[in-house]
Amino acid sequence: MSPILFRLGSLSIYAYGFFLALGFVAGLILAVLKTQKEGVAFEHVANLFFYTVLSAILGSRLLFILVNVDLYRQNPLQMFKIWEGGLVFYGGLILAVGVSIGYMRWHRLPLWKMADLFSPSIAIGLFFGRLGCFFAGCCYGKETSLPWGVVFTDPNSLAPLHVFLHPVQLYEAGSNLALFFFLKWREKKKAFDGEIFWLLILLYAMIRFFVEMVRGDPRGSLFYGLLSTSQGIGIFLGILSFFMLFYLRKKQRG
After folding, report:
1. What is the number of structural domains in the chain?
2. SS3 state at 153
3. Which of 25, 32, 137, 168 has its CA 20 to 30 A from that of 131?
4. Which domain holds residue 101?
5. From CA 143, how far away is CA 151, in angstroms rounded?
6. Kind plus residue range of the DSSP H or E element containing 6
7. pLDDT (tens digit, 9 = 90+) per residue, 173-216?
8. pLDDT tens-digit series, residues 112-140
9. What count of Cα atoms within 13 Å lies in the side-chain half-sphere of residue 38?
């Protein structure tokens, strides 16, 4: 696993940035194809996707910096090198949801219907993003003696070198890919608008909670170290998801 995929002269192509871009492109294509079938104007899809991605990157980076503030005190300029790794999904989710709601309210777009249409795109974007994490060595796991443990040897890697670690990036990548296929299956059977989005939030919160148990990188902590920051946010979002699924179903039934 090498953080740098290849070099073109003095230009280095980082794996994390490459897979992140790949995830954005795949997500956009899926969103465009789906929304065209629903009769949503391409202009709104493109604008919404642009603002969502921009705010997601900003929010993800800000939360990563807050959780790992000690890493940047000596070298603040490192905060801007997102192509090397270092984004927290929940930070991006919170800001992106706020920006997206504002855009959809302003243009009078159906909020929960649009959220459902974009949800599989988020899942596939997370899949590619975690592949980028694996190559970069960020979001690494705890040491393990399990036979599928991975060893990072590249000196540019962000993970500890020459020790067997849980491949948590691949755990989550595989889970997110399964989540993508589940959402694509479920959207054909959904009972109400908003169901797919809140299923995404609920199931991702569950995935992330368990993956966090074997994460080895600095996580931040809550409740005297009982939970990581992401686990705490995940518990809140999981409870909120149950409430919203119940509320929207009840609202649909009138």
Report:
1. 1
2. coil
3. 32
4. 4-253
5. 10
6. strand 4-8
7. 999 999 999 999 999 899 999 999 999 999 999 999 999 999 99
8. 998 999 899 999 999 998 999 899 888 89
9. 19
